[in-house]
Amino acid sequence: MERDKLLEEMYRVVYDGEVDRAALVAEQALASGLDPLDCLKLGFMPALERVGEEFGRGEKFLPELVAAGEAMQRALAVTGPQLAAARRDLPTPGRVLLGTVEGDIHEIGKRIVGSLLMAAGFEVVDLGVDVPARTFLERTRELQPSLVGLSALLTTTMVRQREVIEVLRQAGVRVQVMVGGAPVTPSWAEEIGADGYAEDASSAVALARRLTGGPGS
Amino acid sequence: MRGSLPPRGPIRPIRPRLGLSILGADGVKSIHEAALEVLARAGVRFPSERALAILADAGCEVDRRRQVARIPPDVAMVAISRAPRHFTLGARDPADSLSLDGEHCYLSTDGCGIEVYDLQAGSPRRSTWEDVYRSALVADYLDAIAFYWGPTVSAQDVPVAIRPLRELEAAFLGTSKHVQPETIISAEVARWCVEMALAEVGGAEELRRRPIFSVMQCALDPLGQDGGSLEASLVAAEHGIPTGFMPMPMSCATAPATLAGNLVVTTVDALAPLILIQLAYPGAPVFFAAAPTVMDLVTGGYTGGSPEDYLLGGAFNEVCLHYGLPLSMGVMATGAKLPDWQAALDNTLSTIMPVLTGTAMLTGAGLLNGSKIFSFQQLIMDCEIHSVIARVSEGIRVDPEMLATELICRIGPGGNYLADPHTLRHLRAIWRPRVVDRSPYEAWDRSGRRGAFEAATDLAKTIVEQHRPRPVEPSVRREWDRILAAAARQAEAGN
Ligand code: B1M
Question: Which domain holds residue B67?
Fold first, then answer.
């Protein structure tokens, strides 16, 4: 009974996007002896998936999707290693390293791509904006993502996407690279040797699935 | 078959006589007070050492680590009161100079598009230096366009390091009207641009009197500014070059979901840099700018056209009038991909609202797809929208001559007014289309069903072929070449 109530509560904080309460609920669940993997599999994850589906049907809107994703992140972060470790045991389509390239501070598009990837089950590490090529390299080495996503909104910064790809290749790091952003086109992606281009967030999810060979690809 | 092009007429600003109040005095006061509270309590991020030092000296509480300055209300209000109420946007041709006098409303082109619908091929392609020049050339000809904002598209065939300078060059070559780039985002670029302008006008004093360009910056909403842009504007202000800062808060993403809350963020992000400039250079010309909008709830996109945008676009000038400073409002930012019904809907409503609240500048005409694709036809059709709104906003004059009671009695029941002197006296005040199609159905059918788009295409091609702007002196062009080469060397050395 207690267990069911807690699972329901976990489901609800993510479904309703209660960012401020998510960590607390996760802590309560662990304190009462719930298995971290169950918390994820039966509590948080189904809620995020449902929000993703409802978003796809036009029943939920972007801010609600972002709030659900953030609630989930909070739960994972505060309860730390236990849940994170449990998460790694779950079959996920992969880990995505995401960032806006150096010299560019446009954030919203990349944030949305991140939220949708998260709702699709990807583990997303968002490096923020104005991220130098070197940082992409260092974090890729450290986190071993299956996919690196580069956003650029300016015609003056899209050249940085090429730079990141070159830096990764020169360092001998093998990882799939996906590019996007307003001035980016399929031919640009091809020219700089990216593995794929996505025009918007939902095609970014489809592309990520294809590139990582995950479910639904 | 295209005919010959009539000569270019003088710039035609709007002089609105109709008025509209969206917020009312109480609403404006509440937004002003909320903005002062936010400036003082939350503060604003200024990622520039120079800016933070100026603010600290003036008595703001500065957190160096977070680069945030809290601005007390008295510091804010004193600084704002130093800004000039009225000033001039100069032009290469002095006859094209614009007086920001609170009575006129000036339209510009839109800026920084990425692609262009090729005038010959009709399909979109990446924009080049030549497109910057051509868009300026067409803007130079069109009397509805008072100044050239932008560049309308980016010169992507030019190396990034000197791109803003080559774009300014192309704009100056294409038009003798005022130029307002939004690409001067570092102190070095600002210095080079000032040098180019000095070469053209001939001296620092003349440039102050007749600033042939001004600077438009973006804010980093919410409650933030860009360091390079701030430093560029400080360089501009030092030379008497007008500068404005454009917040574009997007409700739900970079502003509260509510429109009043959006206006508070817009006000704070427009006021904060303006206060900084006044603290550094009291009396320097500054203007407000804004392009507030609401996020699309499904794609997260910048809508650039929705009932909320129209309200925000009209309302913000009421706040600016409270401070007595001119505003440049972002209009005609339709998300439509083609010059179609949606583009007309968005661009008409987004323009009429700020005109009716007495806004000084409107930016701008000609881009589609959320300010990403330039269309020559859209530019011309936007000018037509402008001319319709210019007429509507004049309103209806009522006096004996206009009432024409005598005339009506004289003509009596069943007569007509066609050849009457009263008609001949007043007919030229009636709006006439340039590209709107009013032909009879059969004639339209026989013409191959040509509408406004086809008329605009012809006009654009004729302008590009035949119109020649006021030339730039060869000696000035040699000086620009020297400046461009020096800038390129400096950029090279910096890398
Ligand atoms: C990894 O895989 C992927 C896959 C798909 C990916 C992806 C990565 N990344 C994006 N996608 C794709 O999926 C997303 C979701 O569907 C989409 O993301 P988008 O980002 O396209 O869409 C978002 C959901 C909503 N869209 C946006 O958020 C961008 C909207 C527009 C209006 C825009 C905004 C809002 C801003 N801007 Co700027 N801005 C413009 C934009 C014009 C436009 N209509 O795009 C653009 C991009 N900006 C421009 C400019 C010039 C600038 N901006 C600047 C600043 C800003 C603000 C800070 C004010 C603000 C950003 C706020 C923020 N926190 O992010 C400056 C640059 C600052 C810098 N160093 O980066 C400044 C230089 C202006 C100045 N003078 O300061 C223009 C670029 C022109 C060019 N030639 O390059 C511009 C086209 C507008 C214009 N015409 O002026 C897809 O592109």
Answer: 24-78
